[in-house]
């Protein structure tokens, strides 16, 4: 009870002190600013239309959608790449196994922020301008203006100094997504490798005894059992990827944190802005945890 009373007193003191300081500096508190006109543009909006005349609330919604978009795509791609590398680390081919080991050790020991700067510089500085864009596949163009892909209705076409039509992926989004996927895949690879190694050798031998190939054994016998070991740490990795997406502010991608920072600078509502960021990431983390816990319960059955 004494500890609870001490914590309650500390929280009460902080709240009272904060309100007193806000009043002394004539800074209005509350979330009423969300209904005011934002007055700033957002360089990239995934699915929501936005203009400077929209409210701060809509601007933050655009940031949230941008964050969810890069996190969702990143989770899918990182899972696929990480699973592949994790399995190849168990390959009987020495060269493949060594290359995958080197990849894992490298990406896990280089800070993610440094990797984001690398990918952003690679796209904006190393790739040619739009008029000299690389075309690795029909309808796909790579330039320092971004990556341009064909859509269901149109194909990118060069007009002036940039492409029109198709799907345009900005350098900021491409660098952030690539960095998150490459970095997170290294951790997922180790999780998958550990899960496969947790299955007793007798399982492999029994499968081979009945005529199954190594690939069939891995797919039908080993991986279904390894999921019990893989899923729990995979949940933490997904949460890390989602929270790491907040580093987007370093390369100019307009995620939730970036737009919230702009909102705070313009309104002075620092406490409310930070509270919104915390509440949103907490909600996202709890949603991912709940989904993965549900999936883990199915795997255990």
Main β-sheet, spatial strand arrangement: 1-2-3-6
Radius of gyration: 24 Å
Q: Which series of helices and strands comes N to C?
A: HHHHEEEEEEHHHHH
Give the helix proportion (percent range): 55-70%
Mean pLDDT: 87
Helix/strand-derived class? alpha+beta
Measured by DSSP, the beta-strand proportion falls in 5-15%
SS elements, strand count:
6
- Show unreliable segments: none
Euclidean distance between termini CA atoms: 41 Å
**What does the main sheet amount to?**
4 strands, antiparallel
Q: Per the principal axes of the C-alpha atoms, what is the gross shape? A: flat
How many alpha or pi helices? 9
Please provide a written account of the structure.
The protein is an alpha+beta fold and 301 residues long. It contains 9 helices and 6 strands. It has helices at residues 2-24, 56-88, 94-109, 112-126, 171-197, 201-209, 214-244, 256-267, 270-300, and strands at 134-137, 140-143, 146-149, 157-159, 162-164, 167-169. The chain has a 4-stranded antiparallel beta sheet. A two-stranded antiparallel ribbon has the order 4-5. Strand 4 and strand 5 form a beta hairpin. It is flat, with a radius of gyration of 24 Å. The mean pLDDT is 87.
